[in-house]
Amino acid sequence: MLNPEDLKKKTFTKGFRGYEVEEVDKFLAKLIKEYEYLYLDNLEQKETIERVSSKLEYYQQMEATMQSTLAVAQETADEVKNASEKKAALLEKETAVKCEQQLSEAKAAAQKLHDDTMAHAEDLYNQTKNKTDNMLQAAMAECNKLREEAKAYAEKLRSSAEVDADKLRITTEDVCKKRANSAASEANKLLEDARSEAGRMMLDANTKYRKLVGDAEERSRKIIFEADAKAAMAEQAYNEQVKKAALHRKNMLHLLETQVELLKNYASHNEE
């Protein structure tokens, strides 16, 4: 392509009856001036097109990078969500197992306490009953012994003191009755004390059982509440990340669309 300097340096051979030299020079000067303006404008347009093409390529690369970044962000958000869901499910499962284990342990401990209390109460009752039976047998044996002694003594003295023998027999029987009544009263008192002690121990065992079960249920509810709270926090964090990524993507796409529209308008204006 010719440049303005080529036109300025161009010379023509003069011939016979040729064009007017001065008129041709003036026309060439005007032509060179206009051609120089068009040439420089063309160079400027080329540079502008190159800059616009470079910017367009840059923005296209930026768009591709943003698309890749958004894809990575979406993938990361999905991974975070999946990890949160898995963690929440695992935590819920572990919580349920832990609660069930604690509840079973509490029930087993309460049942053992109840069984031990019942066994102890039964042993105490049996011991008291055996002791009472032994006391009654001893009292009866002593009464029989006294009766036999009184009978023998009365038989010995009957010939000489019938009245004294009867009196002694009556006195001996009264003593035997009193001792028997005393032994029976003491035995009844021991039985009542044993029953009261057994009832009190059973009441304490039931109270401790209900308390253990209540504590286990309270701990279970607390663990479940904490697990639900952690799962809700994880889900909220995931939703916030998704919203931020979507907003960032929307803003970048809007910026790219604006830049592309400006470039198109600029290119259209240059073509005109």
UniProtKB/TrEMBL annotation:
Keywords: Cell cycle, Cell division, Coiled coil, Cytoplasm. One of its GO terms (biological process) is cell division. InterPro entries: DivIVA_domain, DivIVA_fam. It comes from Phascolarctobacterium succinatutens. It is found in: Cytoplasm. Residues 73-197 form a coiled coil. Belongs to the DivIVA family. This is Cell division protein DivIVA. Signal peptide: none annotated. One of its GO terms (cellular component) is cytoplasm. NCBIfam families: DivI1A_domain (TIGR03544). It comes from the Bacteria.
